[in-house]
């Protein structure tokens, strides 16, 4: 069955997910979705200007810096995006995976996130620690929040040993993930980068996942 057809049918069943009283969800993001423009693209099919973040579609979300302990983050070979897997050894309190905790997500939002993450990941419940206002501080005695995140379930042989770097992603890769100011996204799927295939894993405008999210 065509993924875009299945996606559209399920999304219509859920409605727009913004009515008052609906159950909301909290998700921990540690990769490309830490960038607001990428997150908005996935949730709403748009890329609001950073200078105008209070649009009605995004104002219901609340984001804070957070830490997921006892997991490690890795580069995925040949891809722009990272993966996290359970750590094989105990991690100190100040260490772990730093990311963004977003609350106020609707059931429809989570469905779109599931589609975006694809079959490489599985959504699981985790405990996340909210970080102080300065991320350089040790998160001792900070609040622990129940949330969900996307754990890598593909073979670990696809992962590099080294850490994925968000600042490097923003500097070198973000442009092709967030798209132009008009809200359209660069058609990078189908383009082969140095023989390594699609670094977005089908999540660009012309890819299988990207097309499904556009409806």
Compute the CA-based radius of gyration: 17 Å
Shape: globular
Question: Helix coverage percent of residues?
Answer: 10-25%
The count of DSSP E runs of length 2 or more, i.e. the number of strands, is 7
Summarize the structure.
It contains 6 helices and 7 strands; from the N terminus they run αβαββββαββααα. The protein has helices at residues 3-14, 36-44, 107-117, 166-172, 174-178, 208-214, and strands at residues 25-29, 62-68, 71-75, 82-86, 97-105, 121-130, 144-152. Helix 1 packs parallel to helix 6.
Describe what you observe in this structure.
Helix content is 24%, strand content 23%. The chain is an alpha+beta fold. It has a 5-stranded antiparallel β-sheet. The protein has a two-stranded antiparallel ribbon with strand order 3-4. The longest helix has 12 residues. The chain is globular, with a radius of gyration of 17 Å.
Essential attributes:
5-stranded antiparallel beta sheet; 7 strands; globular; two-stranded antiparallel sheet; 23% strand; 215 residues; alpha+beta
Secondary structure blueprint with pairings:
Blueprint: H1 3-14, E1 25-29, H2 36-44, E2 62-68, E3 71-75, E4 82-86, E5 97-105, H3 107-117, E6 121-130, E7 144-152, H4 166-172, H5 174-178, H6 208-214
Antiparallel strand pairs: 1-5, 2-5, 2-6, 3-4, 6-7
């Amino acid at each position: 069955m065509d993924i875009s057809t299945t996606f559209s049918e399920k999304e219509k069943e859920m409605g727009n997910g913004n009515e008052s009283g609906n159950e909301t969800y909290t998700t921990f993001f540690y990769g490309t979705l830490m960038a607001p423009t990428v997150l908005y693209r996935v949730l709403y099919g748009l890329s609001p200007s950073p200078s105008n973040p209070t649009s009605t579609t995004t104002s219901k979300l609340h984001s804070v810096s957070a830490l997921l302990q006892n997991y490690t983050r890795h580069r995925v070979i040949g891809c722009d995006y990272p993966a996290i897997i359970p750590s094989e050894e105990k991690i100190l309190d100040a260490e772990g995976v730093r990311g963004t905790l977003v609350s106020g997500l609707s059931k429809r939002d989570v469905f779109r996130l599931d589609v975006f993450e694809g079959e490489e990941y599985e959504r699981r419940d985790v405990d996340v620690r909210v970080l102080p206002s300065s991320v350089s501080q040790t998160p001792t005695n900070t609040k622990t929040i129940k949330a969900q995140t996307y754990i890598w379930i593909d073979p670990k042989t696809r992962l590099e040993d080294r850490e994925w770097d968000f600042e490097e992603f923003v500097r070198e890769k973000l442009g092709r993930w967030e798209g132009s100011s008009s809200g359209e996204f660069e058609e990078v799927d189908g383009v082969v980068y140095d023989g390594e295939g699609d670094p977005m894993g089908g999540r660009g405008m012309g890819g299988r996942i990207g097309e499904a999210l556009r409806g």
